[in-house]
Amino acid sequence: MSPAPTGNHNRVTHGMRMELNELPADCSRIRRERYKMRRVLEDTILERDGTISPYQAATIQTCIRWATHAALAARWLRIEPNLSIDQKLALSRDIARASESRDRGLKLLDLDKQSGRDPWDSVLSAPVPASEPSADNGCSGHNATSGEVELREDVSQC
Asked: What single DSSP character describes residue 43?
């Protein structure tokens, strides 16, 4: 039996599934993002190595679990209005810890190297959307007409 064509996700035959605990019903965005991240990681490794080893598959799964953990913690931080400061700080630490753990997994997969281009180039070259000063009470310091950003000393109204 010949393998599926390159780019076909059926080509991934490592046998590991992303069996994660079921997410809450209103977390479909997180669910989509984790599957998308898994596909990107698998495609990147397949393109580079031609195959995915069981160790690489397990490391990808771990990266996805940590990314999901960070996304869920960020979600709870955003939607739970009655959290104490200690609870908010704990969730914030969980987000940071999960992100660090995900990045360690990416390093194990040897995906921590840059592709030769500076990621800031795309960020800095993106057009800045015009914003209306009234929307943020003028606190952002963004001048919609000139596109310049200025720092404001008096932020008492922010």
From this structure: H
Which band of pLDDT confidence, cut at 50, 70 and 90, is reported for residue 61? Answer: very high
Q: Give me the pLDDT at residue 146, please.
A: 45
Q: Give the pLDDT confidence score for residue 142 in this predicted structure.
A: 46
Cα(158)–Cα(155) distance, rounded to whole angstroms? Answer: 5
- What's the Cα-to-Cα distance from 74 to each of 9, 38, 96, 100, rounded to whole Å? 29, 20, 10, 15
Strand partners, 149: 142
Per residue in 121-142, pLDDT (tens digit) is 655 666 666 654 444 444 444 4
* Type of residue numbered 149: V
- Cβ atoms within 10 Å, residue 58: 14
CA 28 to chain centre: 15
First and final C-alpha spacing in the chain: 64
Instruction: Give me the half-sphere count of Cα atoms (radius 13 Å) on the Cβ side of residue 39.
Output: 11
CB-CB neighbours of 56 under 10 Å: 20
What stretches of 7-145 show up as alpha helix (H) in DSSP? 28-49, 54-79, 85-108, 119-125
